[in-house]
Amino acid sequence: MVLLLAITAGVLFASAIYMILRRSLMKILVGLLLISYAVNLLLFASADLIPARPALVAADSLLPPATYADPVPQALILTAIVISFGLTAFAVVLMRQVYGTLGTDDLYEMRCTDVPCQEVEIASEEELLEEPL
Amino acid sequence: MQRSILLSFAARYLMPLMLVFSVFLLIRGHNEVGGGFAGGLVATSALMLYAIALSPAALRKLLPVEPRLLISIGLLSAFSSGVIPMLAGKPFMTGLWLKSPIPVIGKVGTPLLFDTGVYLVVIGVVVWILLTLAEE
Amino acid sequence: MDPLILLTGTVLSGILLAACAPLLYRRLGAYAAGLALFPLAIFIQLCLAIPALAAGATWQAALPWVPSLGLSLNVKLDGLGLVMALLISGIGALVIIYGGAYLKGHPFLGRFYSLVILFMTAMLGVVLSNNALLLFVFWELTSISSFFLIGFEHHKANARAAAWQALLVTGSGGLAMLAGFALLGKITGSFEISQWIESSAAVIAHPLAPAAFLLILAGAATKSAQFPFHFWLPNAMEAPTPVSAYLHSATMVKAGVYLLARLFPVFGGLALWPVVVTTLGLVTLVGGALLALAQTDLKRLLAYTTISALGSMVFFLGLGTSLAVKTAVAVLIAHALYKGALFLVAGSVDHGTGTRDIAILGGIGRAMPFTAAAAGLAGLSMAGIPPLLGFIAKELMYETTLESTLPALLSGLLLVANVGMVAVAGWVGYRPFWGQPGQEDLHPHEGSAGLWLPPILLAALSLLLGAFPQLAGKWLVAPAAQAVWQATLSVKLSIWHGLTPMLGLSALTLLLGIGLSAARQRLQPAIARFWHALAKFGPAALYPRSLHTVLSFAAWQTNLLQSGYLRLYVGSIILFTVVLAIFTMARQSIQLVLPTISPPRFYDVILIGIILTAAFLVTRARSRLATMALLGSIGFSIAVIFLLYSAPDLAMVQFAIETLTVILFVLVLYRLPKFKQLSSQSAKITDMLVALMGGILMTGLMLIVSAHNSDAHLARYFVENSLPLANGRNIVNVILVDFRGFDTMGEITVLSIAALGVFSLIKLAAGGKKKRQVPLARGKK
């Protein structure tokens, strides 16, 4: 099962990366969702997989039964799931506003929002030189 | 939007049940499956079911406080659960517990206050986001 | 007074006052010159401290600041610091008064007060710090306030360029100095300067000592405008004249000299010290004086002679005999007094006539008698005529070179420089006032008392200390020289030594200097032509060339890295990670261990089948609805996996979140753009390869991690202590709310911020929506 899950996480990563590399905003959003699934699965399966033994202490004992699922990655994933919802909501709204403002969802057409599209002028030596000495 | 009578009927009666269940999840979360995150999400689902079945405005009317106020209350109670032990001269966020358990709720301590904070923040955040979107 | 309060209180209240100064100016108007009371109060306190400090006491105080960095507010006042602090506070008070008159009505006068007080505080911090890191902080603060003051008239392109130049040159020197401090800190294990002095024998024996010394010297040389970094100082004359008087002649440029003097007990024994420091000083001393001869602008004349004087101080510190140390201190005091006065005079002349060109100025002494008096006195001191302090300093200079190992050479070069000084003193102190007027009608007039009183006071101080040399010797020179020499020194200054070789050299200097001064009109054009021909080989020409290279390189690499294509950013990150991971695995010879394959259970296969199919289909889907359905099926399948493999809490949360995510998308889906096929076929194939590499890497990493994960003692700790320490049986929840509760608090805060972000994005856009085009906004409710 670990091998299967490893492959599954790998496939999820691959399709997430592929989607993030697209030009369309929507597809990048899908990529973001996929990558959070992939990360959660990766964290989950990197601990030993133990069926039907949650890390709970029974009412009459001090320790859980001898074998139990590792609670640490579970705690990590639990908050990650909730945070990824916040991230998704923010990304969705951000992309919608970008689309509404710029009228396009093609990242290539948004290049000029990140870098100046004209050539940057660099002061020539003569301009930098005031009076010699 | 055409409203489904069945859905709105179900929502009216399911919602309180789910809310009670969410509180139950929150309180027993320290010992059994559940906790602030799970409880908060169940409560949110209940509220959103109501909003979808009736209308976002109906949910607004139902909520006693603004969702963003829930966030502040939640953050404040989570933070105060850390500060209370400091008043007792212990390091920040040391768990303090009452000696005797309270009936129905069970053992009460600052971690429960913290978990309540998480619960309220989760409800506040998700309901706020979704209501803002729905009302737009 | 308690030294702790005096020393740290000064620094803190200075910063506070600097912040309030513009406000005070707006309230008080012309009375804001009363801000001078602050430096005056410090000056008086310091004067009262002179007897104690001259007797060899030091005042010390320390407050921890950032203990983990070895940074403490460790301040110490000794003789050397005292002399510097007296100059800083005394001249500071005069400059604030003068500046108020000079910049009267200027829209930025409030800013001027603020920056000057900030500078003064920083400069006091430099000379009071006993901790090298603290010194560095104040050192940089002086560079920054100097930057703002040079660029004070920021509408002028020249002022901006000069400000940049000064900041870049002194700033890069400062960085070198910090590296030097770090090396010294490593050698001695401390950043306390007094500690460095105590362990100087160990420092000198250390192989890294020369490197530390040269790096620190670079800082001192850039700050004190030593060759080849001298060129920023004349350009800094773009600053208002009071600033030039204060920062660029009397105090800030002396910070480098101060640092060398301060570290003389540490590095003085280094074989490198005399060679490098004397050469540096000598070249600057002679070069500065000769360059000055080509100038006709009053301020530039003064700037180049300042370079020369700074060179002489460095030179004498380099010689490193007890006499040389005394000389350096005496020159430092004498120069600050006469040069500060002359700069203020230049400002008054500019103010009264509208020009600073000595070819035009002449005969204005009758109209500006007070300024002329100040100029005359300060000029006499600069020329080295008794009974002024400059004369005593010059006698000491000759005495030191005559007693050195190369008396003829060093005295000869010193003579050349001093002749230049005398000539410039004549051009600045005499010619504009009593010489032949040029062709223009100047209408000179004397300004308000604020414009002539400060220079007269400074010049008079030169006279006072010169007339009573034992006063200066006992109370100022001796304590400072002792702090540098780290032993008791007797300093007996006097005007008349009898007929000595020094007196002869002084007389010869004067004679040649006066001759040169008189021959200005004939000689100056030739000298100017000579320097102009050399200019393109000078370091000043190198500056724009190297700056241009740096800027071009920055533009090139920014264009390369900052392409504006998200695809390229993400792609290069992934490829780099893959390469790095493979490299690390190969180097540490980590083997991929395949886990023992247990036959998967029936529902495992189904769940994984769903996820794999959906993950594949999602990359090819063309409709938004289908994509959401596919994503949902992945999410729910993962939730079931959580449920099957002992994570009921996770499953519950995942189910709820999936449901809410669906609601989220339902609410916005139709306001989002449709899927489009934008990429070309070849881009798709490249991306597919990148994605595959990333996926394979993650699979591999996961297999490696799970093969090495048998012993999780973190988990064991949580499990064993969950009930006893935290009263909880659900260990996952106990970790969340108790063991790692602080993390969870951070997470719910982040969540709240995300909600705030969503809300403000929608509300902000709603506010400005009318101006924007919103195509496809059809899903109206």
Keywords:
heterotrimer, A: 133 residues, mainly alpha, Helix Hairpins, 4 helices, elongated, B: 136 residues, 71% helix
Overall description:
The complex is a heterotrimer of chains A (133), B (136) and C (781). Chain A has 133 residues and is mostly helical. Chain A has helices spanning 2-20, 25-46, 71-102, 125-128. By secondary structure, chain B is mostly helical. Chain B has five helices and no strands. Chain B has helices at 5-28, 36-53, 56-62, 67-87, 110-135. Chain B has one domain. With 781 residues, chain C is mainly α. Chain C has four domains: 1-166 and 235-269, no CATH class; 271-518, no CATH class; 603-678; 730-781. Chain C has helices spanning 3-28, 37-54, 79-102, 109-128, 132-150, 157-188, 193-198, 200-205, 209-223, 232-235, 241-250, 255-267, 272-292, 298-319, 322-353, 369-383, 389-402, 407-434, 449-467, 469-485, 501-518, 520-534, 539-561, 566-587, 602-618, 624-644, 648-668, 681-707, 713-726, 731-739, 741-767, and strands at residues 59-66, 71-77. Chain C has a two-stranded antiparallel sheet with strand order 1-2. In chain C, strand 1 (59-66) and strand 2 (71-77) form a beta hairpin. In chain C, helix 6 runs antiparallel to helix 9 (209-223), helix 14 (298-319) runs antiparallel to helix 15 and helix 18 packs across helix 21. The termini of chain C are far apart. The interface between A and C is large, with 105 and 129 residues.
Summary of the model, kept short:
Chain B has five helices and no strands. Chain B has 136 residues and is an all-alpha fold.
> What share of residues are in beta strands of chain C?
under 5%
Largest β sheet strand count, sense and barrel closure of chain A: none
Based on secondary structure, the structural category of chain A is mainly alpha
Multimeric organization? heterotrimer
What is the count of β-strands of chain C? 2
Structural classification of chain C = mainly alpha
Encode the helix/strand succession of chain A as letters. HHHH
Beta-strand segment tally of chain A = 0
How much helicity do the residues of chain A have? 55-70%
Q: Sum up the overall morphology of chain A in one term.
A: elongated
Radius of gyration of chain C: 36 Å
